[in-house]
Amino acid sequence: MQVSQLWRYPVKSMVGGRVESFELDELGIVGDRTWAVRDLERGGIRGAKKIGSLMRLAATDVDDGQVEITLPDGSMVRTTDSDVDDRVSAALGHRVQLERLRPADDLDHYRRGAPDSDDVVAELRGIFGREDDEPFPDFSIFPPTISEFESPPGTYYDAFPLMVMTEAALAALSAALPDSNVDVRRFRPSFVVDTDGDAADASTPGHPEFDWTGRRATIGTATIEFAAPCPRCVMVTCEISDQIPADRAVLRHIVRDLDQNLGVYASIVTPGVVSVGDAMAFV
Length: 283
Prior knowledge:
This protein is α+β, with helices and mostly antiparallel strands. The protein has helices at residues 84-92, 107-110, 120-128, 167-176, 248-257, and strands at 2-8, 17-18, 21-24, 35-39, 45-46, 58-61, 67-70, 76-78, 96-100, 162-166, 191-194, 216-219, 222-231, 261-270, 272-275, 280-282.
C-alpha cells in the first residue's frame, strides 16, 4: 500500500489543496486548519455543517501562516487584507469573521455557538443531513469534548486529526453513484491510500479501510493509529462548484449502503513526515 494523495486545508471547511509532503506533529498536520470562521450571527466557530457555502471557497497557504482565499467568483483575498471579513461574508451570504487558531486553554474561543433549533433531534438531523427515517451515527466514537466545543480545544478539526480514504473507496463510490460527481474534494481526506488490490479482502467491498480500526501503521517516518470509520454528515452533499453541485444522493448511499461511514479516522502516535509515494505498512 502507498500514499497516492495528500491534502491540507488551511481554513476549516474550505476546499484545500493537494501537496507532495506534509509534517505530522502530536496534534495533526502542520499547517492544517489553522484558520476558521466565527459566526457573527449565532456565535461560535462554524464549519460547513452550519454554513454550507464555505465549501465553495478555497484556501491556500501564503507567507507567515497567512492564507489566500479564492471566492466563488474567482477573485482572491488574503487574511492580511483589511476587507477580508466583509468579502468572505458577502460570498457566504452570512456575517463571519476569520480567526486564527488559538491555544487550547482559551476555552471560550472554542465553545459552540447557539443551535439553529431548540429541538435537539431536528438540530442533529440538520447537522448530519439525515432523513426522518434514517439513523444517527454512533456518537460514542467522538471525543466527549465536542458536546461543549466546536472542535477539540487547540484544534479546528471536528473530532480526529486525520481522515484516511482509499482509492478503492473512491472507485466504489463512482460505480455506485454513476449520476453523481464523487470528486474527492467532497470528502476532505487528509490522505488517500492506494491499497493495490487488497480491497477485495475487505468486509465491505471496495472499502478496505473499514477493517483498519484499532490497527497502527507506519507511513513515511510517522506512525498513526486508526480510530473508527468516519460517520458522514451533510457536508458531503454541499455544492463546491458548478461542476460539483449539491447532491443528496451521495449521503443517501453512504447512510443506506455503507452503515453511514466513508473513510476512517486516525490519530498520530509518532510524529514524522509523510510524502506522496510513501509506503503504508501495519505494525
